[in-house]
Amino acid sequence: MVDMTNDPDGSTGPTDLVGGENGAFIDYLGLEFTSVEADRVAATWVARPALHQPYGIVHGGVHCSVVETLASIGAGTWLGERGQVVGVNNNTDFYRAVSEGAMTSEATPLHRGRSQQVWIVETRDGDDRLVSRGQVRLQNLYPS
Description:
Layout: H1 24-29, E1 32-37, E2 40-47, H2 60-79, E3 84-94, E4 101-112, E5 116-125, E6 130-141
């Protein structure tokens, strides 16, 4: 789990993800973060055979993982040192099958409240066509 704080001790925080250490799963997905802000998280990645399901297209779980990752990072960035976030619902729709090529994913907040946040994540292909769109509801957890 990515530490969602920017502690002076050098621990990884969400703003460190741009060009930083991301963790094995994020690295396997190939996510390259281009923007990590409280109001927007963006990343690029490449659809490739290692991410395919048996029929030769990117597995739906990959899209769900990208959605959950970007939404969680955005929500955690916004909440900051006040607490942590956990995803409680991920609903992702698939609009276009892809097998290879550059992808761009962007997360933006739909709702940010004291107890929960909702983020929307869209993934587009190299021709700017919508490939998938997901919505993640996250619970804000505060220290007791």
